[in-house]
Amino acid sequence: MKRTYLFGILPAIIGILIFILWYVTKHEFFILSGMLFLYVGLASISVGIISSFIQLIKHKEIKTFFIGLSINLINLPIAFFLASTAISIITAYTIQFENKSSFQISNILLNGPSVKASVKSLEIGQLTKSSLHFKGDGKLTLTYVNNGISTTKTIEGYVTGGMGGHSKVVFYNTGANILHNASVL
Predict the structure, then answer these.
(1) pTM of the entire structure?
(2) Among 10, 28, 84, 140, who pairs with 155 as Cys (CB 3.0-4.6 Å)?
């Protein structure tokens, strides 16, 4: 029965470890490893479930059978959660705002395909970020008020759902500087 438990516990532990390593490093190797491990984990779970049935037939222990089956089947919601979380992170467009001006920045509005996000105000020296999930194709614009002057700028000329990406907007006294594909914390 230990083999049944092992086939159920290892995929969850390894899958969570791959996800954590990817989340911390954002290295593509871990995306590929995670995708590959979904298949390896599914095979491992299948062996664990078959092993549970074999143990049931051999030893007629229903309680042990259900424990082994449960340990193996719990991997399915874990794998779904990890995969859907990774997809959500990968497909999000993240924008970091930093105020290096001498004024409070107010009424920050992001407008993209089927999505709007706003930041009421950004104090002097403050950092914040927004993540967007586009539902279509179009342009991503930024509108803000700096020292009483309203300004609209284009962050990206074209974005589409599932595209992902990141930019950094730095506000100065003279306006905003948009850094594309900037490292966003």
Answers:
(1) 0.74
(2) 140
By the 8 A CB rule, do 143 and 111 touch?
A: yes
pLDDT at 37: 94
pLDDT at 169 over 80: yes
Give me the torsion for CA of 48, 56, 81, 136, rounded to 10°.
Answer: 90
Residues 130 and 80 in one domain: no
Distance, CA of 28 to CA of 103 (rounded, Å): 40
Give the 3-state secondary structure of residue 93.
strand
Q: Are residues 9 and 87 in the same domain?
A: yes
pLDDT band at 119 (very low <50, low <70, confident <90, very high): very high
Return the structure tokens found at 31. 């995306």
Determine the structural domain holding residue 65 and report its residue range. Answer: 2-91
**Percent of the chain's residues with pLDDT above 70:** 97
Amino acid of residue 141: T
- Specify whether 74 is located in the same domain as 30: yes
